[in-house]
Design brief:
The complex is a heterodimer.
Chain A lengths: L6 H21 L7 H16 L7 H12 L10 H10 L18 H14 L1 H11 L11
Helix pairs in contact in A: 2-3, 2-5, 5-6
Chain B lengths: L10 H7 L12 H12 L5 H5 L4 H25 L6 H8 L2 H34 L7 H19 L3 H32 L20 H9 L20 H30 L2 H7 L2 H11 L5 H22 L1 H12 L4 H4 L8 H20 L3 H33 L12 H18 L12 H25 L34
Helix pairs in contact in B: 2-8, 2-10, 2-13, 4-10, 4-17, 4-18, 5-6, 5-17, 6-7, 6-13, 6-14, 6-16, 6-17, 6-19, 7-16, 8-10, 8-13, 9-18, 12-13, 17-18, 17-19
Classes of the chains: A mainly alpha, B mainly alpha.
Chain lengths: 144, 505
């Protein structure tokens, strides 16, 4: 592996990664589950069930949603259209690999997100998002 | 540190200036080539998405492995064990020199839009470790793309040894370690008596039929395995290419399948698909997984590891197609002398610099044209279609070489080559045809318009550009022979143009 010839490159990269990992782990904090975030999460999960999503472990789904969205939806719901387009541009939707390309998506993720927007950001934000994706073509490719 | 350029055609002169003992070839091990290949192809990026399919993900990965990965790996193993230089030389020997150039151009063209996308993913993943609010910030994304690209180029200029080390290391740290951790934790979850949250019975093995969408899903997964052949360009950097390269390919093939299948399954055992759907993001899915084991704080660490894997893969791609382009450009005179310039480590520096300028411009569009996100995927589709042309050429070349040069020494001979290559061609053509089916975001717009758009891209980027290079070629641009020796001498380059990189590696 010719470590000797390139040892300074490797050492600099390893040190930088270790520092970043420690920084990231120390800085990491999950949103606290409060009475308010839990109440919102309970509403959200109930709405998901109403929309036909199968929730196999309801208490866990409520806890995860409370941690994920907090009381206001957090970063995940800040700019859903842009997040989606960015994810699409950077191959986070669809299969992996260098030659990844988008396919025909299941609408689950969009429905779930519009419900989340409705609960956490209000009817207007949800309607705006629904208008945005309404022209897309979906198919029921993943199993619920 | 040697700082002089090695201009096209002047390599022997420069080399002759050095004492023989100072010129040490940079050999890399077969394990390094194998890990570089895995790094270029496999990652955990798609694991949360594929986990939503549960046990179906086995089918979605194994079928493409049989009909696309295996043919690619077997054919590449045979060709690399007999001919140096990778895909350009296989296609030149098997079909013709222009087809060799077309093959390597299609491989290279794929990277034009792949690099900014991959580095955009690196930016997003990195933001998760430092500040998730940066994820959708155009300035931040552009800065990461530009800085990482140029730093990677500077490292690449040190030669294939540096690339092999970083690429292999990135794969181990960013894919093997976290992938193993996911599988281990998933197994612990099951061994504790928990039932898998995704149904694991065989009745769910096949995807539910949803018409064309299901076909798109299955066939698009062929492309998960694209890139197995790119490191064949380094075959001459192995001590015993004819034996070592096939070994490297077989190990890589096994690892790639395992890396794709097992972590996706492990996530599906623990995190319900509805939760994966509602969280959307890759890192949020990992967070859900780790949260179950009360180690959610590991998520930013894993984000950094995934970033390492992507950077390792990026390094492998950076070193591959551009080198093939340089080699045929020099040997056939298809590239102008400026693009043929190498540094003392034989790295195609001006091709990398030129591509860097293009990558920088694309990255700047993230800042000045935020709507670039909404059309970027179209360019990815176009270049993926173009890349598929290379696979057809490679399979055809393999069959023709068996017929034309049956006695040419090969370290490995693929069994039933004609059948294997034919299966590869059929799979590739299927992937090409399915590439014309409009995806979700094209919406209700005309499918014919979509087909014409993609065809225009394939024609323009994939065929017209290499045709122009071919038409404009000059005999004087031929600066090396097929056996790697410098050909027609060209005037020496003016001194003083510095190139980074150590000498004598």
């Amino acid at each position: 592996m010719q470590f000797k010839e390139h040892k300074w490159v490797y050492i600099v990269i390893i040190v930088a990664l270790v520092v970043l990992a420690v920084f990231g782990a120390a800085r990491y904090h999950q949103k606290k589950v409060t009475a308010e975030s839990k109440a919102k999460a309970t509403t959200f999960v109930a709405e998901l069930q109403k929309a036909g999503f199968t929730i196999r472990d309801k208490p866990r789904a409520i806890e995860r949603s409370a941690k994920l969205f907090g009381t206001d939806g957090g970063d995940l719901l800040a700019d859903p259209e842009n997040s989606y387009l960015h994810a699409l541009a950077t191959f986070r939707l669809g299969t992996g690999g260098a030659a990844a390309r988008p396919g025909i998506l299941d609408d689950d993720i969009f429905i779930a997100e519009s419900i989340a927007l409705q609960v956490y950001r209000g009817d207007e934000a949800a309607a705006e998002f629904r208008d945005w994706y309404t022209d897309m073509k979906f198919s029921d490719v993943s199993e619920e | 540190m040697e700082t002089a350029d090695v201009a096209a055609g002047t390599a022997p002169a420069k080399a002759a200036d050095k004492p023989a003992a100072a010129i040490k070839p940079q050999y890399i091990s077969w394990l390094a080539i194998s890990f570089m290949t895995v790094s270029a192809v496999a990652s955990l990026r798609a694991a949360p998405t594929m986990a939503t399919y549960g046990i179906t993900s086995i089918f979605l990965y194994v079928l493409p492995a049989i009909v696309f990965l295996l043919p690619t790996a077997l054919v590449a193993a045979e060709l690399a064990s007999g001919w140096k230089g990778g895909v350009y030389n296989w296609c030149r020997e098997g079909i013709s020199a222009p087809m060799g150039f077309l093959a390597v151009w299609t491989q290279f063209a794929m990277t034009i839009f792949y690099y900014p996308a991959l580095l955009g993913y690196v930016a997003t993943t990195f933001s998760y470790a430092i500040d998730p609010r940066l994820a959708n910030n155009g300035f931040y994304t552009a800065a990461v793309i530009i800085v990482v690209y140029w730093v990677a180029v500077m490292i690449s200029l040190r030669g294939v040894g540096a690339i092999a080390g970083l690429s292999s290391g990135g794969m181990i740290i960013g894919t093997l370690v976290p992938g193993s951790a996911l599988v281990l934790l998933g197994a612990v979850y099951l061994l504790k008596g928990n039932a898998s949250v995704a149904p694991m019975d065989l009745s769910h093995l096949f995807p539910q039929w949803a018409g064309v969408a299901s076909l798109v899903l299955v066939v698009n997964n062929f492309l998960s395995y694209a890139g197995m052949e790119i490191n064949a360009v380094h075959v001459n950097d192995l001590r015993n290419p004819s034996k070592d390269f096939p070994k490297a390919m077989f190990l890589a093939t096994g690892l790639v399948v395992v890396i794709f299948v097992l972590p996706a399954l492990a996530i599906s055992w623990v995190v319900p698909s509805s939760e994966l759907s509602l969280t959307g993001g890759v890192m949020q899915a990992f967070e859900s997984f780790f949260d179950y084991f009360h180690v959610a704080w590991l998520t930013p660490v894993v984000a950094l590891m995934l970033m390492c894997a992507s950077l390792g893969g990026f390094m492998a791609w950076l070193a591959g197609p551009s080198k093939g382009l340089l080699m045929i450009g020099r040997e056939e005179g298809y590239l102008p002398p400026f693009l043929q310039k190498m540094n003392v480590n034989d790295v195609q520096k001006n091709i990398l610099f030129s591509q860097g300028i293009l990558t920088t411009l694309i990255a700047l569009m993230y800042v000045f044209l935020p709507s670039v996100n909404s059309v970027y995927w179209i360019f990815s589709v176009m270049t993926t279609q173009i890349y598929l042309i290379m696979y057809v050429l490679m399979f055809v070349a393999a069959m023709r070489l068996r017929k034309k040069q049956p006695d040419h020494p090969r370290g490995y001979r693929a069994p039933w080559l004609n059948v294997v290559a034919s299966v590869g061609i059929i799979s590739t053509v299927a992937a090409f045809v399915i590439g014309f089916v409009p995806p979700s975001q094209f919406g209700s717009a005309s499918p014919i318009a979509y087909v014409l758009l993609i065809l225009a891209g394939v024609g323009g980027i994939g065929l017209l550009v290499p045709f122009l290079f071919y038409k404009l070629r000059k005999p004087a641009w031929k600066t090396a022979t097929a056996d790697g020796e410098a050909g027609l001498p060209s005037p020496p380059e003016p001194e003083g143009e510095a190139a980074a990189g150590p000498s004598g590696d």
